[in-house]
Amino acid sequence: MSDTTSSSQQLTGPVSGAQVENMTREWNYHPELPLQDSSVFKWPPNPVFLAGWLTRNWLMLSERVMMAIVAVGLWYFFYPSLEVTQTFAWGWIAQIWIVNFAMICLFAGSLHWYFYMRKGQGKKLKFDHRPQGTSNKLWNFSDQVHDNMFWSLGSGVLQLTGFQAVSMWLMANGYTPTITFSENPVWFLGFLVIIPMWSAFHFYWAHRLLHQPFLYKRVHALHHRNVNIGPWSGFSMHPVEHFLYLSTLCIHWIVPSHPIHLYFHIVFQGPGAAMSHTGYEDLVIKDKRSLALGTFYHQLHHRYYECNYGNQEMPCDRWFGTFHDGSPEATAVTRARKKRMFG
């Protein structure tokens, strides 16, 4: 799941002063703690904060703007037209599968190559001290990256393609409402902004369900092998979890949308998960934070499990008492919750 914050903090030297200050035995780096509420859902509303949030996320080169650009490119050049998808056929479904397979490989593979093979950023802004896991029977193929690639490219791409094919077939045959930019430009742009919020709301509740002991032990534990996450971790899930996670796309079966909205949502759920699971807070270019990637918010979930089920887009964890702000006190509360749940 993609979880994005923006930053313009300047870094100086091979490791910033802020990173040195924020190194601990538990973490190679963490942001200033306790974590603050970065959601737009504040009361009373703060117009200045809302304007800054909109600017960072949609009026500058951000992760979301990049995803929207990719979605437009997919619509123009790579995915089949809706006219072609009016009747189910192996040809156009295979085309979607090939594009999705290549897209996951490109996003997760390039991020893994840059951060973990080339070590292009070293450990600057990396949350966990440790490298990716190898020579451990916990993983299929005894290797964390190979295990994650297997589940991401196997079950993940297959189910992503399945949800997309059904959605496109419904749109093509008029079984779900569609719009164009010329007909309703306000809703067209507004729905792009809403999709990550809907995704975050859906993710919180699907994720909490997966943390119920029965499903956790049989399904979600596969994803949580990744305590120290990397780009290939984000979309690595059990097939049952992939189904629940990707069911967020069903909103396009009900709410008026355009194929570009669907493709943006697909990029957000699939390749976007690689970006949010890099294990690094930001991409650093010439000692400047240039692109927001992972968040400590979700890193805490992979370390302590029974907390931060959602993300910073929707404050569901704050509303329902499952928020971990990075403090020792929050860790103690989370561990007590885990003990109650699993005995």
Task: Please explain how this structure is put together.
- The chain has helices at 17-21, 47-58, 63-78, 90-117, 144-172, 185-210, 213-218, 239-246, 259-269, 271-276, 296-304, 316-319, 328-342, and strands at residues 282-285, 288-292.
- It is an all-alpha fold and 343 residues long.
- The chain has one domain (17-342).
- Strands 1-2 form a two-stranded antiparallel sheet.
- Strand 1 and strand 2 form a beta hairpin.
- The longest helix is centred in the middle third of the chain and has 29 residues, at 144-172.
- The chain is globular, with a radius of gyration of 20 Å.
- The two termini are 29 Å apart.
- Residues 4-15 have low confidence and may be disordered.
Assembly status: single chain
Number of strands: 2
Q: What characterizes the major β-sheet? A: 2 strands, antiparallel
Give me the secondary-structure category: mainly alpha
Mean of all residue-level pLDDT scores? 92
Instruction: Provide the gyration radius in Å.
Output: 20 Å
Q: How do the SSEs run, as a string of H and E?
A: HHHHHHHHHHEEHHH
* Residue fraction in strands: under 5%
**Which term fits the overall shape?**
globular
Query: How many domains is the backbone divided into?
Result: 1
Regions with pLDDT < 50 over 5+ consecutive residues? 4-15
Distance between the termini: 29 Å
Number of helices: 13
For the largest beta sheet, what order do the strands appear in spatially?
A: 1-2
How much helix, percentage-wise, in residues?
Answer: 40-55%
Key terms:
343 residues, mainly alpha, two-stranded antiparallel sheet, globular, Fatty_acid_hydroxylase, EC 1.-.-.-, transmembrane, oxidoreductase activity, Sterol_Desaturase_Related
